[in-house]
Write a structure and sequence with these properties.
The structure is a single chain. With 326 residues, the chain is of the alpha/beta class. It has eleven helices and nine strands. α4 runs parallel beside α5, α5 packs parallel to α6 and α6 runs parallel beside α8. The N and C termini lie far apart (44 Å). Bound molecules: iron/sulfur cluster. Iron/sulfur cluster binds next to α2 and α3.
Length: 326
């Protein structure tokens, strides 16, 4: 992981936006010093040869990944197993969340060749399970729902054995968008609540808690066979009682799988870490969530929505079968 300096400007040397400020809307904010991470969060720099092969293949297909754009700490481990989370519809987001390192601004027009290139890369990487996410595209009438559907269809064609997980934006004020994605039948429909409702104005200012919940509820109603999944970050100042309430809300919306991970501050202009939650505290959250009836819970400091998503998908299927047999 970086200090704040490296990712204030675009890190892709030679890229079309190299040297530009990634977060112009945050430039005026006072710096928030980045706290030293505890030992349980440190990760090694990527060195594995397969990491470099994965990187080269993604570059060759001109694909963007959230692994890089969000400066994910797990990139060395995931890419060494050829697991990369594709980020479609460009690398510029129309929202300006307080936690997120993805560039903010006005995105480019959609690239209609992208679904095919994603599908080709999925086939070449030989993925059993792929996670496809995107930037928020508030500028598009459907929020990018049709592009998600086209990407799912292209992957089904090129890699019929691969299971598909989508991690979508909230489609706020995009009527019909959830229906379009659900009709494309991903295997997992994931949307992250990210944090407790009290912190939305500072952490997800462009989002609405109840819209995110509604999306998850609606996806389950439209396609009950699809697994639904959501993720939360901790360490932003949330209270335990608030976490319990969010878990209850997610269960009421029928969500199957909950992920919980530690928030890490990407730059000095992003929200400060309020607390490094200990592994023991994560285990407590996991036990609490399991008690609420989620089919699967993953809660560790380095858990991210897409971390170990392929192995977790197999566990999800097994848990559903066990629940049906019981
Ligand atoms: S956890 Fe997800 S975003 Fe992070 S490197 Fe792994 S696949 Fe990429």
């Amino acid at each position: 992981m970086s200090t704040g300096i490296r990712i204030e400007v675009d890190h892709r040397a030679g890229g079309p936006r190299a040297g530009e400020l990634r977060h112009p809307e945050k430039a005026h904010r006072p710096d928030q010093p980045i706290a030293r991470k505890p030992a349980w969060i440190r990760v090694k720099a990527p060195t594995h040869p397969v990491y470099h092969e994965t990187r080269a293949l993604l570059r060759e297909h001109r694909l963007v990944t959230v692994c890089e754009e969000a400066a994910c700490p797990n990139v060395g481990e995931c890419w060494a197993h050829r697991h990369a989370t594709m980020m479609i519809m460009g690398e510029t987001c129309t929202r300006a969340c307080g936690f997120c390192n993805v560039r903010t601004g006005l995105p480019d027009a959609l690239d209609t060749g992208e679904p095919g290139r994603v599908a080709e890369a999925v086939a070449k990487l030989g993925l059993r399970h792929v996670v496809v996410t995107s930037v928020d595209r508030d500028d598009l009438p459907d929020g990018g729902a049709a592009h998600f559907a086209a990407t799912i269809a292209a992957i089904r064609d090129a890699a019929p054995g691969t299971t598909i997980e989508v991690l979508t934006p909230d489609f706020l004020r995009k009527p019909g968008a959830i229906e379009v994605v659900a009709a494309a039948r991903p295997d997992v429909f994931n949307h992250n609540l990210e944090t407790v409702p009290r912190l939305y104005p500072s952490i997800r200012p462009g989002a609405r808690y109840y819209q995110s919940l509604r999306l998850l509820d609606e996806a389950k109603r439209l396609a009950p066979g699809i697994f639904t999944k959501s993720g939360l970050m901790v360490g932003l100042g949330e209270e335990r009682a608030e976490m319990v309430q969010v878990m209850d809300d997610l269960r009421i919306a029928g969500v199957d799988f909950l992920t919980i991970g530690q928030y890490l501050q990407p730059t000095v202009k992003h929200a400060a870490v309020a607390e490094f939650v200990t592994p023991e505290h994560f285990a407590e959250y996991a036990a609490l969530a399991r008690g609420k009836g989620f089919l699967l819970v993953s809660a560790t400091p380095l858990t991210r929505s897409s971390y170990h998503a392929d192995a977790d998908f197999a566990l999800l299927r097994a848990a559903r079968e066990a629940a049906r047999a019981a």
